[in-house]
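Q&A log
Question type: sequence-to-structure
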Amino acid sequence: EGNADHSLYRTTGDSQIELTERGSRQALEAGKRIKEIIGDESVHLFVSPFERTLQTARNVREAFDSQIKHTYVEPRIREQEFGNLQGDDFKRFRAEQSQVGRFWYRFPSGESGADVYDRTKSWWDDTLLSVNSRPGYKKVENVVVITHGLTMRLILMQLHGWSPNTFHTVWNAGNCDVYVLAKDLSLKGESPYR
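Response status: OK
Response body:
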């Protein structure tokens, strides 16, 4: 809804913005694409707690039978907190952000990209690196993450060792685009992901 009508942000909190019918269709299609990629292998699903990502997860799950072993609602992969942006303040803050840099600028009462980087790194290090060693959980071959464009870019920044300058040259993918990361321990360098 927020992409279709930016005025919604004046009356509805970012976490409560829902999917449009088009967004729901995109999520169903994304689920089918993911299913084609992983086949019958097992999955853990990690989802941002925002309403639109929860709705996306429900639609993605429709492509799967019993392959999804557990769904985690994970606050650390939520969208960046932009603070209380109203009217002309939004334009001023965006101008300040372009001077400081999108990664470094912290919105008043909100977060910087660096803040989101830190919390997603905490999630990755605490959770994903140990996902298959948790007591009581079955081991899985795949992890599916349903999050937001900026958040995903910051996760990619960590995994690929991008500098803030490189981050500034990369833009968000489209809604319900699918990134596939494959772990390859034979890769040399900072990241085993390709």
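Response note: Helices lie at 21-38, 51-61, 87-100, 113-126, 149-160, 164-169.
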